[in-house]
Amino acid sequence: MCVDYRRLNQHTVKDKFSIPVIEELLDELGEAKSWSEHLQHLRSVLLILREQQLYAKKTKYCFGSSQVHYLGHVLQEGTVSMDTSKIDCILAWVIPRSVKELRSFLGLTGYYRRFIKNYGMMACPLTDLLKKNGWEWSDRATEAFQTLKQAISSAPVLALPNF
């Protein structure tokens, strides 16, 4: 069973903040079933922001877009995918020469782990290199590195949950 605790908390936890958290605002905007309903929700969100004296730069938002780039993801019509600029960055990554470089690579690919089936198993030879005195790059590590890059380049588009 999957529970959206934010909805549950709306009924069980008293207001702690004078303004809603960003997730609540995004949820409200995302619930619209029609353009006119979306505009009503948008108006209410903007009014809340104005009441709390919060403002956004005009260059930072757009209205009526069917696609949004958000934190390295592309949200579009009920789906989420990886931002192509991040995919290109990962594909251009050269074989790490130090633990620090490997951590950076694993950090970026790990951020997208939900797009890669069996990510942990694929990354295991690389994470083993992060152990104390474990740095010894091998053919197995090279294979894991290339496998992860290939998996990222063919990552699927995921459907967003509809609670």
Descriptive notes:
InterPro entries: DNA/RNA_pol_sf, Rev_trsase/Diguanyl_cyclase, Viral_Replic_Matur_Polypro. With 163 residues, the protein is of the alpha+beta class. It has two domains: 5-64, no CATH class; 84-159, Alpha-Beta Plaits (2-Layer Sandwich), CATH 3.30.70. The chain is built from seven helices and four strands; from the N terminus they run αααβββααααβ. It has a four-stranded antiparallel sheet. A hairpin with a 2-residue loop joins strand 2 and strand 3. The mean pLDDT is 82.
CATH architecture title of the largest domain: 2-Layer Sandwich
* Largest sheet strand order: 1-2-3-4
Q: Based on helices, strands and strand pairing, what is the structural class? A: alpha+beta
Query: What pattern of helices and strands is seen along the backbone?
Result: HHHEEEHHHHE
Total number of distinct structural domains: 2
CA-based shape = elongated
**CATH topology group of the largest domain:** Alpha-Beta Plaits
Helix tally equals: 7
Stretches where pLDDT is under 50 for at least 5 consecutive residues are none
Question: What amount of the residues lies in strands?
Answer: 5-15%
End-to-end C-alpha gap: 12 Å
Describe the largest sheet.
Answer: 4 strands, antiparallel
